[in-house]
Amino acid sequence: xxxxxxxxxxxxxxxxxxxxxxxxxxxxxxxxxxxxxxxxxxxxxxxxxxxxxxxxxxxxxxxxxxxxxxxxxxxxxxxxxxxxxxxxxxxxxxxxxxxxxxxxxxxxxxxxxxxxxxxxxxxxxxxxxxxxxxxxxxxxxxxxxxxxxxxxxxxxxxxxxxxxxxxxxxxxxxxxxxxxxxxxxxxxxxxxxxxxxxxxxxxxxxxxxxxxxxxxxxxxxxxxxxxxxxxxxxxxxxxxxxxxxxxxxxxxxxxxxxxxxxxxxxxxxxxxxxxxxxxxxxxxxxxxxxxxxxxxxxxxxxxxxxxxxxxxxxxxxxxxxxxxxxxxxxxxxxxxxxxxxxxxxxxxxxxxxxxxxxxxxxxxxxxxxxxxxxxxxx
Length: 378
Hints:
Blueprint: E1 5-11, H1 17-27, E2 32-38, H2 43-53, H3 64-73, E3 82-86, H4 92-101, E4 105-108, H5 116-129, E5 133-135, H6 143-153, E6 160-168, H7 173-176, H8 179-182, H9 190-193, H10 198-214, E7 218-226, E8 237-244, E9 249-255, E10 264-271, E11 275-279, E12 286-289, E13 296-298, H11 307-311, H12 323-338, H13 351-369, E14 374-376
Parallel strand pairs: 1-2, 1-3, 3-4, 4-5, 6-9
Antiparallel strand pairs: 6-10, 7-8, 7-14, 8-9, 10-11, 11-12, 12-13
Domain GFO/IDH/MocA-like oxidoreductase: 145-276
Domain Gfo/Idh/MocA-like oxidoreductase N-terminal: 6-135
InterPro entries: Gfo/Idh/MocA-like_OxRdtase_N (IPR000683), Gfo/Idh/MocA_oxidoreduct (IPR051317), GFO_IDH_MocA-like_dom (IPR055170), NAD(P)-bd_dom_sf (IPR036291)
């Protein structure tokens, strides 16, 4: 077995859900070993958390700049190889940029940056660095999403007609109606979250799923947001009409105030021959729809699935796999790239996906603020 990749972690301390998700994913294939970290802004909290996890504390640094400086003093054979950025949005760009500039590989939470301009600067830094950059659009790691991508690429649907993606949650609903609460949540603070809450946090996942599964690109869009209150500067609900290649049209719907919804990401792609539908809350079922044949259900772990789907399947057919497995597949793909091994381009989202995501987020904001007008994407 190859030596484990030395992993640094930025953020994700304490009871952070995203932190648990990344740590489990990193350990899933025995490809990584947590070598150093800055888990929390407070150094004592970081040290305590490292002890709780059973990680040696000699490379738990007081801050990000110290981590970079101290790691660069070490021989290349000992220093951290890749850093996982799990901080709030406003820290993604400065951290990822400095990591790339100093020769580190990067695994970064989305949105990649808080502005499209930052995304383009980061893209140039990545080109100069020549290192691996993986963006954790987690849901691309599900085996049946990968199967969906491969079936569409092989022509199962024929010419695509219609795209319908939605991502509904309800978690901000009890917060948004309380003035004090809505001013205390960082995702509703433009200084920390960027220019968008709902579309920047979850709508961009739906957008990424559309482009990932179809292989097409959104060319232009028209967006309508709901902010709920005049003193709230961040969108909490939005509907986006999209125009794609080859006269394909569709809709992306996103909401954080969809009462009772939990993590309702779903996507349906319709073509001249058939349609495909997948839902994140029932991830082991991919539905193939037809006008002339009975409904077909694809499930992971079976030999009829594609190589990409099967590579992301860890258990025999009939054993449920979920979001930890999905994130684990992204870390697995990034590990292959870091080691210089052969990998499928669909194994992990890249810098390109991050740039596209920020282009999408800013275009939706511009469309709404312009009076719900059509805006072209680059």
